[in-house]
């Protein structure tokens, strides 16, 4: 459950990060620290877990450096300030908008109201560079939480003398991991309801996609447990933590279009190539 709590704390920052720097760049930046934190914990045996030494350490180090370089290049990409209304829905709508019927909860006079067809403002559009730096910093911190999410699980597996009744495989600990996520997210949800005075804001349009995305994530995260058992963190983290960011970057280019321009696309292409090269080297190093 402790590992699930770490994951949930990192995930709470996802929406503010994506609203500021986009889904592609956000995932790629936090994926970098996720990769480094997870790799370091497995490679050097941090936090009491057993260290795992790859068959080809030099190749493993080289791949990690490539992944870090790719992450740095991703941080240099400057996403577009806004998207068109067909690609993005406002977080809050005017009362006369027909979307208002789809909202659970209401908005008082102090809430920000966005007309149909307008892009959602981020902190009134002021100090965009400062917000970008803050979003990148928060992304790095979120990546650390993601990177240590498996440490409690692996610690239990590495110390059977302390936990004689614990499952021997990672899949046996998936339920407790997910319960940690559920309890942490529920605690923050309860806090949000209290702060909003029982007037939470949520769109009914998010329910179906959220359930679908959560199911897909649950399958993928369970597969990560299996990968850790068979490859070790030192190999699985650089591959699994960075490849989803590359896929998200492609969504940002071809669908959300928050990454465009010759400079950004050139940087993105180079960063993706370097990251994939690093992931391949890490995988071969096993």
TrEMBL record:
It is found in: Membrane. Keywords: Membrane, Transmembrane, Transmembrane helix. Signal peptide: none annotated. One of its GO terms (molecular function) is carbohydrate transmembrane transporter activity. It is a multi-pass membrane protein. The chain crosses the membrane at residues 12-31, 51-74, 133-155, 175-194, 206-227, 233-255, 267-285. The keyword Glycoprotein does not apply. GO terms for cellular component: membrane. It comes from the Eukaryota. Pfam families: TMEM144 (PF07857). Belongs to the TMEM144 family. This is Transmembrane protein 144.
